[in-house]
Known about the structure:
17 helices, mainly alpha, five-stranded mixed sheet, two-stranded antiparallel ribbon, globular
Amino acid sequence: MQTTVTPRDSVRDWVSEREIAAVLRGEPVTPTDPAAFAYSAVRHAVAALVVKRGVADLLPPNQAARLVDEARRQAAIIEFRDRAARLVIQALHQAGIEALAIKGVYLGNTLYPESFLRARHDTDLVIRVTDRAPMLKVLRELGYERQPEQTGDAVLGQVMFDRPHGPGVPLDVHWRLARPHAAAALFDIEAMMSHSIAVPRLGEHARGPTATDALAVACVHRAAHHAGHDLLLWMYDVHLIIQALGDDQAEAFVRMAVDRRMASLCSSMIQEAYEAFPHPRAADLAQRLSRAGAAEPVATLIHPRPWWTTFHSDLRAVPRWSDRLRLVAGHAFPPAAYMRTTYAPTSRAPLPWLYARRAMRALTRLN
Length: 367
């Protein structure tokens, strides 16, 4: 889910966020500032959840309408996207490609009572790296087109698609589970595939990660891609996963997090989720993981960081000089479609000029 989250900007927003968390915990709440409450519910992508809890009935008509309209819009969009996801997963299966549903589409169709209650902007799937070429063929036949992004595998580890000329959804197909290489190295996709579980709401061949793998993805995703952001939806995701864990699964998660040296990232996210949505198992997991992960190299991902810090970390994480050169080239020379869309959407400036302009921007950001 590609979500832009702005920092908390007032005491009013802070109070509303606490009230929203209480609503999601099932507590009776009458919002003290209806306008701030409605704004925060939309900002944190939980408007549909709040409406489901009946809080809109306690708001003035204009604020209630804002939440109800957002919930209805989300319900229509998610229903459409789930249908498209079923078609994609079925087509990939028929081509012999195993694809796991992850992140929002997986959580919405497993842990939430109705899929539309889990907001999302795209559908995330993960495949084996060896299935990239046949995956591209399948999606082209379905009418999907690659989007003009930095799609080189050395940079992103995923390809983004949409279907501009017919029904479809923004679609992200991953063969790495995080952009920073240090974070991507925390996951074993082959093991995730072998332990996957059925997701019947997405079709007879749809599968997703186990609860332990889903929790790891939820924790690492926030640190790897949205460090410092506080979206209540992500915390609620973590809360629901932890709530669904059995004792054996909780123990397995701790072992996995410690063995793969992701305990610090998981502890940070679980602690934040616990503060908004208290649960005894979350408190226990956060405490145990915090003790185990203090000296882990990936702990630096918890905090906001400039892009060049991630770039330097990526260079250190890839094992071979040839991979490092490909990584540098991927950053310095993105695909032509991306360059034109980003830097010259309405002009025909030569590509060398666009690359030079991009390099100058990067140098300016270093100062």
